[in-house]
Amino acid sequence: MKKIIALVLFTLLFSCTDNDALEVYDKAQKPAEVNIKGYSKPDILQLRLNGSPISISGKTSYTDKIETQLQFVLDKGETDELGVYNNETGAQIAKYSITYDNINDYKNVNFFNLPGIFLKTYAVKPQVNLGKVGFEFIFPNLGEFSGSSLHDVKGVLKRENGVILGEFESIGKDNFTTVKIYNFFSATAPVYLELYKPGTTEPYSGSGLIQVKVKQDIGANMIVLQEKMENGVLVVKGDIDVADYL
Q1: Beta 132-138 vs 219-230: how paired, if at all?
Q2: Which UniProt keyword terms apply here (predicted)?
């Protein structure tokens, strides 16, 4: 009888020890859902998850509007990499490192790919009534050449004669501003965007006025601002209009 009791106790002890070991070595997991909404023109792109091409409507390369939803499982302590590649050259354009701990940051992945520029946002052309002009701005490389640590700048859009057409309190790196609309007045007269530190009339970098000449098309204008160096001098350009591609 004593031997039988001892055997039962030994079996229970061994079972508990084995379960404990399984708990230690079992990895915690979490379901991941990533909603992708992108656009590319004219480049053909490919999305890859951990190096494997992602099929969208039966295709592993795509252009224009790119939309899909990914569902997979994340192991704690591991990283899954979502990459955006140029399908023709194989060059990686962007990557997103998705983990068990940061998955909430990647529930929605948006991008807009144009020649020479990649925006981690999705662009929707605003509605602008006939005879009106609308402007939106984004500043993705703010600080790249100026060294500014600002996350956004203030913009004041003016006519050549100094008349203010619109004020943008926060032009940031990640998303387009809310559209500002005014009456169209000329197909040839330029408009200028002056850039300041938020809430001030002080240039966001240096001491001289930072002024960007931007084209004015009737309807929507979605301007990408870019810091550049020309002959050792910081300038800001506004040559790219995303609305031209939509």
Answers
A1: parallel
A2: Signal
Block residue for tokens 């915690």: 28
Residue 148 CA to residue 236 CA, distance in Å, equals: 13
- Whether the CB-CB separation of 53 and 68 falls below 8 Å is answered with no
Cα–Cα distance for residue pair 205/225, rounded to 1 Å: 15
**Cα 76–33–73 angle (5° rounding)?**
35
Which CATH architecture does the domain made up of 29-119 adopt? Sandwich (2.60)
**For the chain, which residues make up each domain, given as ranges?**
29-119, 132-244
Q: Distance between CA atoms of 225 and 195, rounded to whole angstroms?
A: 11
pLDDT tens profile 27-61: 789 999 999 999 998 999 999 999 999 999 999 99
Is there a contact between 210 and 229 (Cβ–Cβ < 8 Å)?
no
Contact criterion met (CB below 8 Å) for 156 and 200:
no
Q: Which fold has domain 132-244?
A: Immunoglobulin-like (2.60.40)
Sequence-separated (6 or more) residues with CB below 8 Å from residue 92:
83, 84, 85
Give the strand order in the sheet containing 132-138: 180-183, 132-138, 219-230, 233-241
User: Other CB atoms closer than 10 Å to residue 155's CB: what's the count?
Assistant: 26
CA 75, CA 239: separation in Å to the nearest integer?
Answer: 44
Q: What are the strands, taking DSSP E only, across the chain?
A: 29-49, 52-53, 62-75, 79-86, 92-99, 108-114, 117-119, 132-138, 152-159, 164-172, 180-183, 191-196, 211-214, 219-230, 233-241
* pTM of the model as a whole: 0.76
